[in-house]
Amino acid sequence: MNETTGTVRKSIWSRAKEMAQQAPPERNRYVDFLRALSILAVVVGHWLVAAPHMKDGAVEGGHLLGILPWTQWLTWGFQVMPLFFLVGGFSNGMSWAATLRTGGSYESWYSGRLQRLINPVLPLFLIWTLVAMFGTLAGLDRGVVAMAAQLALIPVWFLSVYLMVAAVVPLTWRAWKRWGFASFQVLVAGAILIDVAALRFDVPYVNFLNFAFVWLAIHQLGFAWSEGRLPPGRALVWGIGGLAALGLLVGFGPYPVAMIGVPGSDLSNSMPPTLALLALGIAQTGFALALEPAGRQMLDNLRIWTAVVLVNGMIMTIYLWHLTAFVLVMVAAWLLGGVGLDVPPGSAAWWLARPLWFALYIAALFPLIMAFARYERASGSGGEVPHWRLIAGLLLICAGLGATAAISIASPLGVTGVRLWLVALPFAGAAIAQFGPVHRLMRSQT
Protein backbone atom coordinates (compact mmCIF):
# COMPACT_ATOMS: atom_id res chain seq x y z
CA MET A 1 0.00 0.00 0.00
CA ASN A 2 2.78 2.42 0.92
CA GLU A 3 4.69 1.50 -2.23
CA THR A 4 1.60 2.11 -4.37
CA THR A 5 0.89 5.42 -2.69
CA GLY A 6 4.49 6.49 -3.13
CA THR A 7 4.35 5.56 -6.81
CA VAL A 8 1.16 7.56 -7.31
CA ARG A 9 2.63 10.59 -5.57
CA LYS A 10 5.84 10.29 -7.59
CA SER A 11 3.84 10.09 -10.80
CA ILE A 12 1.77 13.15 -9.89
CA TRP A 13 4.88 15.12 -8.98
CA SER A 14 6.67 14.01 -12.15
CA ARG A 15 3.80 15.15 -14.34
CA ALA A 16 3.63 18.48 -12.54
CA LYS A 17 7.40 18.92 -12.89
CA GLU A 18 7.18 18.22 -16.62
CA MET A 19 4.43 20.82 -17.00
CA ALA A 20 6.42 23.28 -14.89
CA GLN A 21 9.46 22.88 -17.15
CA GLN A 22 7.31 23.44 -20.24
CA ALA A 23 5.87 26.75 -18.98
CA PRO A 24 6.82 29.57 -21.38
CA PRO A 25 9.37 32.01 -19.94
CA GLU A 26 7.02 34.97 -20.42
CA ARG A 27 4.35 33.41 -18.17
CA ASN A 28 3.75 35.35 -14.97
CA ARG A 29 4.19 32.57 -12.43
CA TYR A 30 3.20 34.87 -9.60
CA VAL A 31 -0.40 34.82 -10.87
CA ASP A 32 -0.52 31.04 -10.45
CA PHE A 33 1.14 31.34 -7.05
CA LEU A 34 -1.48 33.81 -5.77
CA ARG A 35 -4.28 31.61 -7.11
CA ALA A 36 -2.93 28.58 -5.29
CA LEU A 37 -2.19 30.57 -2.14
CA SER A 38 -5.70 32.04 -1.98
CA ILE A 39 -7.44 28.69 -2.35
CA LEU A 40 -5.18 26.96 0.18
CA ALA A 41 -5.76 29.79 2.65
CA VAL A 42 -9.51 29.30 2.27
CA VAL A 43 -9.13 25.56 2.90
CA VAL A 44 -7.02 26.08 6.02
CA GLY A 45 -9.38 28.79 7.25
CA HIS A 46 -12.45 26.59 6.85
CA TRP A 47 -10.78 23.64 8.57
CA LEU A 48 -9.75 25.91 11.42
CA VAL A 49 -12.95 27.84 12.15
CA ALA A 50 -15.27 24.84 12.07
CA ALA A 51 -15.12 23.50 15.62
CA PRO A 52 -17.67 20.74 16.25
CA HIS A 53 -17.55 19.04 19.65
CA MET A 54 -19.46 16.57 21.78
CA LYS A 55 -22.03 17.94 24.18
CA ASP A 56 -24.47 15.79 26.17
CA GLY A 57 -23.66 12.80 23.97
CA ALA A 58 -24.34 14.57 20.69
CA VAL A 59 -22.19 16.46 18.20
CA GLU A 60 -22.76 20.19 18.38
CA GLY A 61 -21.53 22.58 15.74
CA GLY A 62 -19.08 25.23 16.87
CA HIS A 63 -17.51 28.28 15.25
CA LEU A 64 -14.06 29.31 16.44
CA LEU A 65 -14.64 33.02 15.72
CA GLY A 66 -17.59 33.01 18.08
CA ILE A 67 -15.83 30.94 20.74
CA LEU A 68 -12.61 32.97 20.71
CA PRO A 69 -13.39 36.53 19.54
CA TRP A 70 -9.69 37.42 19.21
CA THR A 71 -9.42 34.96 16.29
CA GLN A 72 -11.66 37.27 14.24
CA TRP A 73 -8.55 39.36 13.52
CA LEU A 74 -7.07 36.34 11.72
CA THR A 75 -9.68 36.71 8.99
CA TRP A 76 -7.77 39.75 7.71
CA GLY A 77 -5.23 37.22 6.48
CA PHE A 78 -7.40 34.18 5.79
CA GLN A 79 -10.25 35.93 3.93
CA VAL A 80 -8.40 35.95 0.62
CA MET A 81 -11.26 35.75 -1.87
CA PRO A 82 -10.26 39.28 -3.00
CA LEU A 83 -6.97 37.80 -4.24
CA PHE A 84 -8.87 35.25 -6.29
CA PHE A 85 -10.89 38.00 -7.98
CA LEU A 86 -7.66 39.97 -8.52
CA VAL A 87 -6.08 36.96 -10.22
CA GLY A 88 -9.29 36.41 -12.15
CA GLY A 89 -9.15 39.97 -13.44
CA PHE A 90 -5.54 39.49 -14.56
CA SER A 91 -6.28 36.20 -16.33
CA ASN A 92 -9.61 37.26 -17.83
CA GLY A 93 -8.15 40.52 -19.06
CA MET A 94 -5.18 38.85 -20.74
CA SER A 95 -7.35 36.13 -22.25
CA TRP A 96 -10.08 38.45 -23.52
CA ALA A 97 -7.52 40.82 -25.02
CA ALA A 98 -5.98 37.88 -26.89
CA THR A 99 -9.44 36.81 -28.08
CA LEU A 100 -10.08 40.29 -29.45
CA ARG A 101 -6.71 40.31 -31.24
CA THR A 102 -7.38 36.99 -32.94
CA GLY A 103 -10.98 37.77 -33.86
CA GLY A 104 -12.46 35.16 -31.54
CA SER A 105 -16.03 35.25 -30.29
CA TYR A 106 -17.45 35.87 -26.85
CA GLU A 107 -19.43 32.63 -27.05
CA SER A 108 -16.33 30.52 -27.58
CA TRP A 109 -14.31 32.42 -24.96
CA TYR A 110 -16.89 32.34 -22.18
CA SER A 111 -18.08 28.82 -22.92
CA GLY A 112 -14.60 27.53 -22.12
CA ARG A 113 -14.48 29.41 -18.84
CA LEU A 114 -17.97 28.38 -17.82
CA GLN A 115 -17.27 24.75 -18.58
CA ARG A 116 -13.97 24.61 -16.68
CA LEU A 117 -15.67 25.99 -13.58
CA ILE A 118 -18.96 24.08 -13.63
CA ASN A 119 -17.76 20.62 -14.71
CA PRO A 120 -16.06 19.89 -11.34
CA VAL A 121 -19.18 21.07 -9.47
CA LEU A 122 -21.61 18.58 -11.00
CA PRO A 123 -20.10 15.44 -9.42
CA LEU A 124 -20.11 17.20 -6.04
CA PHE A 125 -23.81 17.96 -6.43
CA LEU A 126 -24.59 14.41 -7.54
CA ILE A 127 -22.69 12.76 -4.68
CA TRP A 128 -24.25 14.96 -2.00
CA THR A 129 -27.71 14.52 -3.47
CA LEU A 130 -27.29 10.76 -3.11
CA VAL A 131 -25.85 11.12 0.40
CA ALA A 132 -28.74 13.33 1.53
CA MET A 133 -31.31 11.10 -0.13
CA PHE A 134 -30.06 7.78 1.22
CA GLY A 135 -29.31 9.30 4.60
CA THR A 136 -32.90 10.48 4.88
CA LEU A 137 -34.32 7.17 3.64
CA ALA A 138 -32.11 5.32 6.15
CA GLY A 139 -33.73 7.27 8.97
CA LEU A 140 -30.93 9.66 9.87
CA ASP A 141 -32.03 12.86 11.55
CA ARG A 142 -32.91 15.36 8.80
CA GLY A 143 -31.24 18.14 10.74
CA VAL A 144 -27.94 16.25 10.77
CA VAL A 145 -28.23 15.47 7.05
CA ALA A 146 -29.00 19.10 6.27
CA MET A 147 -26.09 20.35 8.39
CA ALA A 148 -23.64 18.00 6.65
CA ALA A 149 -24.87 18.89 3.15
CA GLN A 150 -24.92 22.60 3.89
CA LEU A 151 -21.37 22.49 5.25
CA ALA A 152 -19.99 20.42 2.38
CA LEU A 153 -21.55 22.65 -0.29
CA ILE A 154 -20.53 26.01 1.19
CA PRO A 155 -17.84 26.53 -1.50
CA VAL A 156 -20.33 26.75 -4.38
CA TRP A 157 -21.59 30.25 -3.49
CA PHE A 158 -18.33 31.77 -4.68
CA LEU A 159 -18.61 30.20 -8.12
CA SER A 160 -22.01 31.74 -8.81
CA VAL A 161 -20.57 35.21 -8.18
CA TYR A 162 -17.36 34.60 -10.10
CA LEU A 163 -19.21 33.22 -13.12
CA MET A 164 -21.33 36.39 -13.26
CA VAL A 165 -18.25 38.61 -12.95
CA ALA A 166 -16.52 36.71 -15.75
CA ALA A 167 -19.63 36.88 -17.93
CA VAL A 168 -19.45 40.68 -18.15
CA VAL A 169 -15.71 40.88 -18.89
CA PRO A 170 -16.29 42.39 -22.37
CA LEU A 171 -18.11 45.31 -20.72
CA THR A 172 -15.73 45.78 -17.79
CA TRP A 173 -12.68 45.44 -20.06
CA ARG A 174 -14.08 48.05 -22.41
CA ALA A 175 -14.69 50.34 -19.43
CA TRP A 176 -11.12 49.80 -18.27
CA LYS A 177 -9.63 50.53 -21.67
CA ARG A 178 -11.68 53.72 -21.97
CA TRP A 179 -11.58 55.14 -18.45
CA GLY A 180 -8.78 53.29 -16.66
CA PHE A 181 -8.84 53.65 -12.86
CA ALA A 182 -12.00 55.76 -13.11
CA SER A 183 -13.87 52.53 -13.91
CA PHE A 184 -12.62 51.18 -10.56
CA GLN A 185 -13.49 54.37 -8.71
CA VAL A 186 -17.08 54.33 -9.97
CA LEU A 187 -17.52 50.83 -8.58
CA VAL A 188 -16.05 51.91 -5.23
CA ALA A 189 -18.49 54.83 -5.16
CA GLY A 190 -21.30 52.38 -5.88
CA ALA A 191 -20.23 50.17 -2.98
CA ILE A 192 -20.19 53.19 -0.66
CA LEU A 193 -23.68 54.26 -1.71
CA ILE A 194 -25.01 50.74 -1.25
CA ASP A 195 -23.63 50.47 2.29
CA VAL A 196 -25.01 53.89 3.18
CA ALA A 197 -28.44 52.89 1.87
CA ALA A 198 -28.35 49.55 3.71
CA LEU A 199 -26.73 50.55 7.01
CA ARG A 200 -27.85 54.15 7.43
CA PHE A 201 -31.30 54.11 5.84
CA ASP A 202 -32.18 50.41 6.26
CA VAL A 203 -33.13 49.92 2.61
CA PRO A 204 -33.96 46.19 2.43
CA TYR A 205 -31.99 43.83 0.16
CA VAL A 206 -30.06 46.64 -1.53
CA ASN A 207 -26.84 45.39 0.09
CA PHE A 208 -26.89 42.35 -2.21
CA LEU A 209 -25.88 44.68 -5.04
CA ASN A 210 -22.45 44.81 -3.45
CA PHE A 211 -21.81 41.31 -4.72
CA ALA A 212 -21.39 43.16 -8.02
CA PHE A 213 -19.80 46.45 -6.92
CA VAL A 214 -17.20 45.01 -4.55
CA TRP A 215 -16.05 42.04 -6.61
CA LEU A 216 -16.12 43.89 -9.91
CA ALA A 217 -13.97 46.62 -8.35
CA ILE A 218 -11.28 44.11 -7.31
CA HIS A 219 -11.58 42.45 -10.71
CA GLN A 220 -10.80 45.83 -12.35
CA LEU A 221 -7.58 45.98 -10.33
CA GLY A 222 -6.66 42.68 -12.00
CA PHE A 223 -6.96 44.47 -15.36
CA ALA A 224 -4.65 47.19 -14.03
CA TRP A 225 -2.14 44.57 -12.93
CA SER A 226 -2.20 42.85 -16.34
CA GLU A 227 -1.22 46.13 -18.00
CA GLY A 228 1.51 47.03 -15.52
CA ARG A 229 -0.45 49.92 -14.02
CA LEU A 230 0.26 48.84 -10.44
CA PRO A 231 4.06 48.57 -10.13
CA PRO A 232 5.46 47.51 -6.73
CA GLY A 233 6.09 51.01 -5.36
CA ARG A 234 2.64 52.27 -6.26
CA ALA A 235 1.06 49.02 -5.12
CA LEU A 236 2.62 49.41 -1.66
CA VAL A 237 0.92 52.81 -1.31
CA TRP A 238 -2.38 51.16 -2.25
CA GLY A 239 -1.78 48.44 0.31
CA ILE A 240 -1.08 50.90 3.11
CA GLY A 241 -4.05 53.05 2.09
CA GLY A 242 -6.40 50.05 1.97
CA LEU A 243 -5.25 48.85 5.38
CA ALA A 244 -5.67 52.33 6.87
CA ALA A 245 -9.18 52.59 5.41
CA LEU A 246 -10.05 49.16 6.81
CA GLY A 247 -8.81 50.16 10.25
CA LEU A 248 -10.94 53.32 10.20
CA LEU A 249 -14.04 51.47 8.96
CA VAL A 250 -13.74 48.83 11.68
CA GLY A 251 -12.57 51.17 14.43
CA PHE A 252 -15.05 54.00 13.89
CA GLY A 253 -17.66 52.55 11.55
CA PRO A 254 -20.38 49.92 11.91
CA TYR A 255 -18.30 47.08 10.48
CA PRO A 256 -17.23 44.06 12.55
CA VAL A 257 -13.62 42.92 12.78
CA ALA A 258 -14.30 39.54 11.17
CA MET A 259 -14.15 39.52 7.38
CA ILE A 260 -16.44 36.49 7.27
CA GLY A 261 -19.78 35.88 8.94
CA VAL A 262 -19.81 35.04 12.65
CA PRO A 263 -22.80 33.29 14.23
CA GLY A 264 -24.80 35.76 16.29
CA SER A 265 -23.36 38.84 14.59
CA ASP A 266 -25.84 41.38 13.24
CA LEU A 267 -23.65 42.22 10.23
CA SER A 268 -21.48 40.09 7.99
CA ASN A 269 -18.69 41.63 5.95
CA SER A 270 -18.85 38.88 3.32
CA MET A 271 -22.47 37.81 2.80
CA PRO A 272 -23.02 40.16 1.10
CA PRO A 273 -19.65 41.96 0.88
CA THR A 274 -19.30 45.37 2.47
CA LEU A 275 -17.08 48.39 2.04
CA ALA A 276 -14.82 46.93 4.74
CA LEU A 277 -14.20 43.83 2.64
CA LEU A 278 -13.47 46.05 -0.35
CA ALA A 279 -10.88 47.92 1.74
CA LEU A 280 -9.35 44.57 2.71
CA GLY A 281 -9.25 43.62 -0.97
CA ILE A 282 -7.43 46.85 -1.85
CA ALA A 283 -4.94 46.26 0.97
CA GLN A 284 -4.31 42.66 -0.08
CA THR A 285 -3.94 43.73 -3.72
CA GLY A 286 -1.41 46.39 -2.82
CA PHE A 287 0.74 44.23 -0.57
CA ALA A 288 0.58 41.23 -2.92
CA LEU A 289 1.73 43.26 -5.93
CA ALA A 290 4.39 45.03 -3.87
CA LEU A 291 5.86 41.58 -3.19
CA GLU A 292 5.64 40.46 -6.83
CA PRO A 293 9.35 40.93 -7.69
CA ALA A 294 10.40 38.82 -4.70
CA GLY A 295 7.68 36.29 -5.47
CA ARG A 296 8.71 35.88 -9.09
CA GLN A 297 12.32 35.41 -8.05
CA MET A 298 11.22 32.74 -5.57
CA LEU A 299 9.29 30.93 -8.29
CA ASP A 300 12.46 30.55 -10.38
CA ASN A 301 13.13 27.64 -8.02
CA LEU A 302 11.90 24.58 -9.93
CA ARG A 303 10.64 22.71 -6.86
CA ILE A 304 8.55 25.64 -5.65
CA TRP A 305 7.22 26.30 -9.15
CA THR A 306 6.39 22.60 -9.57
CA ALA A 307 4.42 22.67 -6.30
CA VAL A 308 2.46 25.68 -7.61
CA VAL A 309 1.75 23.90 -10.90
CA LEU A 310 0.65 20.79 -9.00
CA VAL A 311 -1.84 22.71 -6.85
CA ASN A 312 -3.19 24.69 -9.80
CA GLY A 313 -3.81 21.48 -11.71
CA MET A 314 -6.33 20.35 -9.09
CA ILE A 315 -7.27 23.66 -7.53
CA MET A 316 -11.02 23.49 -8.14
CA THR A 317 -11.16 19.93 -6.82
CA ILE A 318 -9.34 20.92 -3.65
CA TYR A 319 -11.64 23.88 -3.15
CA LEU A 320 -14.88 22.03 -3.83
CA TRP A 321 -14.14 18.85 -1.87
CA HIS A 322 -12.17 20.07 1.16
CA LEU A 323 -15.26 20.40 3.33
CA THR A 324 -16.53 17.00 2.23
CA ALA A 325 -13.23 15.62 3.57
CA PHE A 326 -13.88 17.51 6.80
CA VAL A 327 -17.37 15.99 7.10
CA LEU A 328 -16.00 12.49 6.46
CA VAL A 329 -13.48 12.85 9.29
CA MET A 330 -16.14 14.22 11.64
CA VAL A 331 -18.51 11.34 10.83
CA ALA A 332 -15.73 8.82 11.44
CA ALA A 333 -14.92 10.45 14.80
CA TRP A 334 -18.61 10.37 15.75
CA LEU A 335 -18.97 6.70 14.78
CA LEU A 336 -15.96 5.93 16.96
CA GLY A 337 -17.79 7.35 19.97
CA GLY A 338 -16.79 10.98 19.54
CA VAL A 339 -13.07 10.33 19.82
CA GLY A 340 -11.21 13.64 19.86
CA LEU A 341 -14.41 15.66 19.93
CA ASP A 342 -14.58 15.94 23.70
CA VAL A 343 -11.86 18.60 23.77
CA PRO A 344 -13.30 22.11 24.30
CA PRO A 345 -12.75 24.21 21.14
CA GLY A 346 -10.21 26.97 21.67
CA SER A 347 -8.49 25.29 24.61
CA ALA A 348 -4.76 24.61 24.64
CA ALA A 349 -5.40 20.91 24.04
CA TRP A 350 -7.62 21.79 21.08
CA TRP A 351 -4.88 23.91 19.45
CA LEU A 352 -2.25 21.22 20.06
CA ALA A 353 -4.49 18.68 18.33
CA ARG A 354 -4.92 20.79 15.15
CA PRO A 355 -1.90 19.30 13.30
CA LEU A 356 -3.27 15.78 13.80
CA TRP A 357 -6.77 16.78 12.67
CA PHE A 358 -5.35 18.59 9.63
CA ALA A 359 -3.40 15.44 8.73
CA LEU A 360 -6.66 13.48 8.87
CA TYR A 361 -8.44 16.04 6.69
CA ILE A 362 -5.65 15.86 4.11
CA ALA A 363 -5.74 12.05 4.19
CA ALA A 364 -9.50 12.14 3.55
CA LEU A 365 -9.13 14.75 0.80
CA PHE A 366 -6.41 12.91 -1.14
CA PRO A 367 -8.62 10.07 -2.50
CA LEU A 368 -11.31 12.61 -3.38
CA ILE A 369 -8.76 14.51 -5.45
CA MET A 370 -7.69 11.29 -7.16
CA ALA A 371 -11.30 10.44 -7.97
CA PHE A 372 -12.63 13.82 -9.09
CA ALA A 373 -9.72 15.92 -10.40
CA ARG A 374 -10.37 14.44 -13.87
CA TYR A 375 -13.50 16.61 -14.18
CA GLU A 376 -11.32 19.66 -13.83
CA ARG A 377 -9.51 18.63 -17.00
CA ALA A 378 -12.62 17.70 -19.00
CA SER A 379 -12.50 18.64 -22.66
CA GLY A 380 -14.83 21.08 -24.35
CA SER A 381 -17.99 20.28 -26.26
CA GLY A 382 -16.26 20.88 -29.55
CA GLY A 383 -18.47 23.61 -30.98
CA GLU A 384 -19.42 27.22 -30.44
CA VAL A 385 -22.40 27.62 -28.14
CA PRO A 386 -25.25 29.86 -29.30
CA HIS A 387 -25.38 33.03 -27.25
CA TRP A 388 -28.88 32.49 -25.90
CA ARG A 389 -28.06 28.97 -24.71
CA LEU A 390 -24.90 30.16 -23.02
CA ILE A 391 -26.70 32.91 -21.09
CA ALA A 392 -29.70 30.72 -20.23
CA GLY A 393 -27.39 27.99 -18.99
CA LEU A 394 -25.40 30.50 -16.95
CA LEU A 395 -28.51 31.86 -15.25
CA LEU A 396 -29.76 28.39 -14.33
CA ILE A 397 -26.34 27.35 -13.02
CA CYS A 398 -25.94 30.48 -10.91
CA ALA A 399 -29.50 30.20 -9.59
CA GLY A 400 -28.77 26.64 -8.48
CA LEU A 401 -25.43 27.47 -6.86
CA GLY A 402 -26.79 30.56 -5.14
CA ALA A 403 -29.87 28.79 -3.81
CA THR A 404 -27.72 25.91 -2.56
CA ALA A 405 -25.64 28.31 -0.48
CA ALA A 406 -28.76 30.06 0.81
CA ILE A 407 -31.12 27.19 1.67
CA SER A 408 -29.20 23.89 1.10
CA ILE A 409 -30.16 21.00 -1.14
CA ALA A 410 -31.49 19.12 1.90
CA SER A 411 -35.22 19.53 2.56
CA PRO A 412 -37.06 19.18 5.88
CA LEU A 413 -40.06 17.81 3.95
CA GLY A 414 -40.72 15.10 1.37
CA VAL A 415 -39.78 11.47 1.06
CA THR A 416 -36.35 12.01 -0.49
CA GLY A 417 -35.20 14.75 1.89
CA VAL A 418 -33.73 16.61 -1.08
CA ARG A 419 -34.86 19.69 -2.98
CA LEU A 420 -34.62 17.96 -6.33
CA TRP A 421 -35.65 21.09 -8.24
CA LEU A 422 -32.63 22.89 -6.81
CA VAL A 423 -30.24 20.08 -7.67
CA ALA A 424 -31.62 19.98 -11.19
CA LEU A 425 -30.81 23.65 -11.91
CA PRO A 426 -27.04 23.40 -12.48
CA PHE A 427 -27.43 20.16 -14.44
CA ALA A 428 -30.11 21.73 -16.61
CA GLY A 429 -27.94 24.81 -17.10
CA ALA A 430 -24.98 22.66 -18.17
CA ALA A 431 -27.16 20.74 -20.62
CA ILE A 432 -28.63 23.91 -22.13
CA ALA A 433 -25.13 25.38 -22.48
CA GLN A 434 -24.24 22.20 -24.42
CA PHE A 435 -21.63 20.68 -22.15
CA GLY A 436 -21.26 18.67 -18.99
CA PRO A 437 -22.22 15.04 -18.23
CA VAL A 438 -25.83 15.48 -19.34
CA HIS A 439 -24.87 16.83 -22.74
CA ARG A 440 -22.15 14.22 -23.26
CA LEU A 441 -24.65 11.49 -22.46
CA MET A 442 -27.14 12.95 -24.95
CA ARG A 443 -24.46 13.10 -27.65
CA SER A 444 -23.36 9.53 -27.01
CA GLN A 445 -26.91 8.30 -27.62
CA THR A 446 -27.34 10.10 -30.92
Could you give a quick summary of the protein structure above?
The chain is mostly helical and 446 residues long. It has helices at residues 2-22, 29-49, 64-67, 75-78, 81-101, 106-118, 121-137, 142-152, 156-167, 169-179, 181-200, 210-226, 232-252, 275-290, 292-298, 302-312, 315-335, 348-372, 387-407, 420-432, 437-444; strands at 53-55, 58-60. The chain contains 21 helices and 2 strands.
What spatial order of strands do you see in the largest sheet?
Answer: 1-2
Q: How would you spell out the order of helices and strands? A: HHEEHHHHHHHHHHHHHHHHHHH
The separation of the N and C termini measures 42 Å
In terms of per-residue confidence, which ranges show pLDDT below 50 for 5 or more consecutive residues? Answer: 436-446
Approximately what portion of the residues adopt beta-strand conformation?
Answer: under 5%
Radius of gyration: 22 Å
Derived from helix and strand composition plus strand pairing, the structural class reads mainly alpha
Anisotropy-based shape: globular
Q: State the total count of DSSP E strands.
A: 2
- Whole-number tally of structural domains: 1
Number of helices: 21
Largest sheet composition: 2 strands, antiparallel
Please provide a written account of the structure.
The protein is mainly alpha-helical and 446 residues long. It has one domain (2-444). It is built from 21 helices and 2 strands. A two-stranded antiparallel sheet has the order 1-2. Strand 1 (53-55) and strand 2 form a beta hairpin. Helix 5 (81-101) packs across helix 14 and helix 10 crosses helix 11 (181-200). It is globular.
